[in-house]
Amino acid sequence: MIRAIRYRDAQxxxxxxxxxxxxxxxxxxxxxxxxxxxxxxxxxxxPVRIPVGIRHKPxxxxxxxxxxxxxxxxxxxxxxxxxxxxxxxxxxxYWQAC
Length: 98
Hints:
Elements: E1 2-3, H1 10-16, E2 22-25, E3 33-39, E4 47-54, E5 64-66, E6 75-76, E7 79-80, E8 87-91, E9 94-97
Parallel strand pairs: 4-5
Antiparallel strand pairs: 1-9, 2-3, 3-4, 5-6, 7-8, 8-9
C-alpha cells in the first residue's frame, strides 16, 4: 500500500512528484464536483487527472465517486491505468494494487 499524500499547493505537488500523491482541484464550478490529480502509484511519474463527484459518480465518463475526504479519500470504482498497467483502489487514503 502507498499513502496518498495530500498536497494543498499545486506547484509543490508538481515539483515533488511523489508516487500516489494527490491534489484536489475544487474549482470545477460546483460544490459537488471536483478533479483529483495524482501521480501514478506505480512510480512511472505520470500525472493523472480524473473527474470525481462528492458522494456520487458524475455523468462525465470516465468518472469516480469520491467520499469527499481530502485527507483520507476513497474512490469507486477502481483506477485502471492503461498506459503503465497499474490497476488498484484508493481506500481511506491508501493506494492498493489489485
